[in-house]
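Section handout 9: paired folding examples.
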Amino acid sequence: MGYKLFGPSPNVSHGISLFFAALCVFGTYTLTKYLAGFWQGVFAAALLLFSPIFFAQAGICTADIFVAALCVWTVHYYLMGKMVPYLLIGICLAMTKLTAIGVFVPIMLYDVCLHAKNGLDFKRQLLLSVPVLLAGVFLGFQYLTTGRFVPNSYFVTNNFFAEFNITALAGKALDIFSFVFIEQLRFIPTAALCVFVIINRNEINRAFYLFFGIILFFIVSFATMFYLTRYITLLLPLYFSMAAIAVFSLMKQRSVIVPALSLLMASFIYLSYNPRANDGRYDVTMKYSDFVRLHQEAAKYMENTFTGMVLLSDSPFEIAVKDPRNGYVSQPIETSMEMGPRVNTAVVFSKPNKQRFGSDVLKENGFLPVKTFRIGSLEFIIFRRSE
């Protein structure tokens, strides 16, 4: 809708992302206020806003920030018992991104347990599952029209689901668990949350069971499929809602809360801009801005130097240069993700040895490096096939 109203451009894309980020922050405040109170809501929203991965994702036009906003509002209206807004927002959530369907499985299981004394209400469960059913219908039509449930070009040559290996899956689940609960200083609110749960185990807010259920369900699910770190963005509103409630409950002296949480938020901001804090994952801190600048420099060089060439490249550079509306080039560059005979002019790779076609493979196929771009530890090398 934003593109229809204002036209496709990078500024519109960033504006849409910022709108959904604000909606997510406000939703976190609203949900936490509903569960515990005004100040808990304020601090949950503040912790979310300044969390390094959320702060970075708020300016990137990916579906993850949209899903996070829709997720927190879906959960909020479910807990309030308002079925109509739950269904409307839930349908948007399920249709925005395939993996978001996982939000509804814990909700339905939680609802069954919540009303177990009254028996299973099939009509209510059917209503709660409407977003999943509609997403299933959409996937069915997508398969009939494209021959694939997930037509993304990346999954033409890559598997969506991971190979079944208990050790590998357990290790991946542990890595995801660590990023959600420990990394980027989240071990501090996690420690407070653990103490709070132990102390109040007999009178904990029932919504915590739902939040933990959604988080753990996604950790297990992400371990079995294609996963990028930014996918956990949708879990952060629920995590920080619980964390803020826990901190306020444990800290009896209210005068200490503001300085303590302010220090934590300041630490979050430091991590966002610390070049050593990204651990090679350039979409979890503001380090991504260097990644974008490197793409821009390489794309402009390609456009000005190698007119009419077919570019061999992986995503995201392949996506960036195909459409001028992305803001990297003024004219589209023809791309290929396979080393075919038409790819005879130039190749761009970020950290080539980590790509499907590394430097050695390119050189074996007659490609020579002609230009290198570097920003910090990031590197782009442009290759050209020799005549």
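Moving on to protein 2 of 2.
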Amino acid sequence: MEITVDQKVEAGYTVLPVGSYNGSVTEAKEQEGDKAYYLRIVVQVSEPGEYAGVLIFDNVMVKSKAEEAPPNFQGHLRSLVEATLGEWRNFNSDELVGCDVQVRVKHEQYEGEPQHRVKRFGYSAYGPLPDED
């Protein structure tokens, strides 16, 4: 199959400014890493409009492979589940897809380049997530 490319498309990655973004979960895939099992989460931004369509990727740890998991190992998972499903409970990863969520983004450096990272998940109906360090 021959694939026609758009010559005007630029390669790159949109680094979102630090802040809160509303969107919906478009993917929640179970993955296995060296030290833990995790969910690969993709959120597509809907608001603010200038960033609509930008994808936010996050790996949310589910279960440690260590005999003793670090304290609050599932804290990030809990913020995701409460924000999308309304309560901290057992769930199937497919339940997350299609759920609205708010994402608080922070910046980190990766190989000398800035990247946005998920700091916290929240429920968008409550208003913007608070600015916190």
